[in-house]
Inverse folding.
């Protein structure tokens, strides 16, 4: 390991052993922990998805009872959102933000340790509900009352694990904001920051703004259940619809929390492999900020069918459609970046390209549902399931893969196996479409979501979808193999790794020293 | 731009303030929601007892269908049905109808009926001078009785509304308090 940049500091040498990981305050260690946790949770949540798809393979009830099926849909969503995608991006932020802005570490390293180590306990608490009297939560990840109040012993554990996950996210977000605002290297002005840093800055503000609202909403559920309040109980003068308003006031920014860092990753990768500067850098920044702002005023498009007055439906319809404008700016900028570039198609680029195409499909199905009268038909059908899986799987998860392939050589010092990486990409890209595309047709034909059984006319598309699901799930084991293989060895990566790569992280050795940028680099 | 441009504790404090503020905002949405629905009258909540002071001229040319729905919350062991399920009414005229409820258990129970009107915009024009929903209703073991409702539709009910549905849900008062 190179010690070129650590010789003039009084940091202790690289700590060893298992406790290193428990006590670590090093952003690279914590980033690794986050990424490992996210990958583990991705497989836990994925296993639940396999149970769902196995049950839906054929009409009728085959393997699990309906209550457990509903637990699976609920837990799959909670685990994937709070356990896999969000920690995955926080892990990337930990690894990359300090290296990209030329900072020695995160601004608040001890809090960083905390925000990670809360996660496994929250995760265990949430998974522990599977073994409780009355089963795991089965009322949907959106936790609508009064249904969610019928959860058995698991209910308080659900609420407290959500509280812990929220606290972890808020601490992580505060850390990221402080790091970006206070710790940039000399010359690294705001408008020189890499786009990944920009998208994370905006995401962190979204987290700080909406996670507390979510914490408030679930606290109200808790007091309604155990302390006699009636926030959402009509019997005591409350209103269950109000929960939906509060939840989605959090929930809509939340979906952008899961996609904005993905936009950042793609904006790093495409210029590298197109060997051109990112087209429209400042418009990318403004577009990200506009998406974040708009995310606060569109929440009721998740609840068009609750019975809203016409003016409300029109407002939320137009506001939602407005989001297509900044999102379109981003997509066109990515395409323009590639225009006349000397492109090569290594695995990270393939995942990034698949992201641009498939995420846009998810965006378009979102636009379809933004149309209020049309939404009445699609609401709570497999069409919405297809929509958010296109945005979250081929959107967020694909960019996490892209990021892993892109920065893994930097992190480990070893190149991954390009052949296997490409195989992983093609299998994933094909099967994810076999898995989710038929769900559009199922939804249009009226198949409701979150139901373990279905009418026989839906049988073919469900079987197709399940087969795609099993294949997609198996393919991901290949990713684990590739990562382990790369960590253990492989051809050595150069410092720059990619011919077209630009940014401070590529000026460091591969792998970077344990303490990097202890003297701030000069940015021209 | 130097390596550290601002004070970390200061920025952390500011960000924590946002966190606390937004946690409070979540709770502030509760009264805000009620005020908003009260002003716009969109969530179908009807008001309490009204005293009709002035004599209102009934609009005999206009007929509106009023439908009655009765439900019990969750698995409350009561029977609860409207005595008539629909009535044709003239706005401005007072009508009387009743709902029947029966406590099927062998213990005394207290229930509270919560009304809701659809379409929501009709709610503020649905005037009740007497209703079993104004107070808690106590039923002895096995007791059943008819409960009266005296109501009038305000002639200012928007022209396009031809059908108004009044729904009651009975809640087990003790369960709600827990």
């Amino acid at each position: 390991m190179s010690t070129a940049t650590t010789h003039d500091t009084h940091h202790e040498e690289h700590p060893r052993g298992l406790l290193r990981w428990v006590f670590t305050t090093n952003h690279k260690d914590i980033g690794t922990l986050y990424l490992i946790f996210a990958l583990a949770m991705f497989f836990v949540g994925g296993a639940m998805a396999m149970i769902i798809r196995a049950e839906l393979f054929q009409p009728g009830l085959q393997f699990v009872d309906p209550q457990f099926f509903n637990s699976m849909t609920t837990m799959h969503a909670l685990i994937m959102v709070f356990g896999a995608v969000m920690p995955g991006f926080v892990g990337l932020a930990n690894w990359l933000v300090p290296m990209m802005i030329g900072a020695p570490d995160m601004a608040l390293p001890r809090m960083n340790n905390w925000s990670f180590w809360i996660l496994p306990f929250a995760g265990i608490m949430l998974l522990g509900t599977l073994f409780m009297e009355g089963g795991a939560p089965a009322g949907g990840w959106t936790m609508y009352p009064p249904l969610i109040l019928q959860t058995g012993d698991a209910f308080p554990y659900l609420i407290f694990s959500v509280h812990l996950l929220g606290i972890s996210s808020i601490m992580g977000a505060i850390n990221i904001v402080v790091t970006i605002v206070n710790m940039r290297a000399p010359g690294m002005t705001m408008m020189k920051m890499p786009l990944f840093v920009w998208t994370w800055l905006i995401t962190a503000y979204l987290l700080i703004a909406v996670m507390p609202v979510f914490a408030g909403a679930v606290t109200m559920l808790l007091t309604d259940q155990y302390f006699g309040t009636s926030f959402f109980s009509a019997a005591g003068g409350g209103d269950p619809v109000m929960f939906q308003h509060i939840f989605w006031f959090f929930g809509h920014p939340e979906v952008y929390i899961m996609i904005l860092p993905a936009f950042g990753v793609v904006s790093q990768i495409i210029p590298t492999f197109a060997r051109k500067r990112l087209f429209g850098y400042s418009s990318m920044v403004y577009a990200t900020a506009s998406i974040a702002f708009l995310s606060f005023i569109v929440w009721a498009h998740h609840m068009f069918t609750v019975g809203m007055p016409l003016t409300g439906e029109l407002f939320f319809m137009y506001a939602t459609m407005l989001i297509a404008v900044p999102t379109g700016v981003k997509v066109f900028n990515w395409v323009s970046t590639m225009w006349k570039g000397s492109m090569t198609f290594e695995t990270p680029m393939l995942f990034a390209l698949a992201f641009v195409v498939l995420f846009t499909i998810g965006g378009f199905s979102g636009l379809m549902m933004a149309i209020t009268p049309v939404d009445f038909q699609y609401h709570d059908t497999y069409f919405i399931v297809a929509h958010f899986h296109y945005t979250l799987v081929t959107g967020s998860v694909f960019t996490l893969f892209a990021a892993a392939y892109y920065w893994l050589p930097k992190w480990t010092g070893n190149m991954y196996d390009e052949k296997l990486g490409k195989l992983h990409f093609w299998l994933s890209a094909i099967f994810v479409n076999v898995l989710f595309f038929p769900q559009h047709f199922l939804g249009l034909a009226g198949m409701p979501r979150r139901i373990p059984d279905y009418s026989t006319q839906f049988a073919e598309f469900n079987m197709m979808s399940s087969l795609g699901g099993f294949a997609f799930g198996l393919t991901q084991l290949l990713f684990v193999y590739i990562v382990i293989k790369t960590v253990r060895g492989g051809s050595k990566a150069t410092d720059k790794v990619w011919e077209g790569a630009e940014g401070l992280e590529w000026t460091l050795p591969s792998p970077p020293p344990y303490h990097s940028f202890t003297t701030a680099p000069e940015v021209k | 731009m130097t390596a550290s441009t601002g004070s970390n504790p200061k920025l952390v404090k500011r960000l924590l303030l946002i966190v606390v503020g937004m946690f409070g905002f979540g709770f502030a949405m509760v009264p805000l929601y009620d005020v908003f629905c009260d002003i716009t009258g969109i969530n179908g909540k009807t008001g309490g007892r009204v005293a009709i002071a002035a004599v209102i001229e009934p609009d005999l040319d206009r007929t509106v269908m009023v439908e009655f729905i009765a439900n019990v919350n969750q698995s409350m062991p009561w029977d609860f049905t409207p005595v008539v399920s629909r009535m044709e009414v003239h706005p401005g005229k007072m009508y009387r109808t009743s709902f029947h409820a029966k406590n099927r258990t062998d213990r005394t129970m207290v229930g509270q009926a919560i009304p809701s009107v659809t379409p929501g915009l009709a709610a503020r024009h649905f005037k009740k001078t007497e209703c079993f929903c104004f107070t808690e209703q106590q039923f002895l073991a096995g007791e059943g009785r008819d409960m009266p409702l005296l109501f009038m539709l305000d002639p200012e009910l928007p022209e396009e509304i031809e059908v108004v549905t009044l729904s009651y849900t009975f809640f087990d008062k003790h369960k709600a308090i827990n």
Q: What stands out?
A: Chain B touches chain A at residues 1-8, 11-12, 15-16, 18-27, 29-30, 33, 37, 40, 42-44, 73-74, 112, 114, 116, 118, 120-121, 169, 171-173, 176-178 (CB under 8 Å). Chain B has a mean pLDDT of 85. Helices of chain B lie at 8-40, 173-177. The first strand of chain B starts at residue 64 and ends at 72.
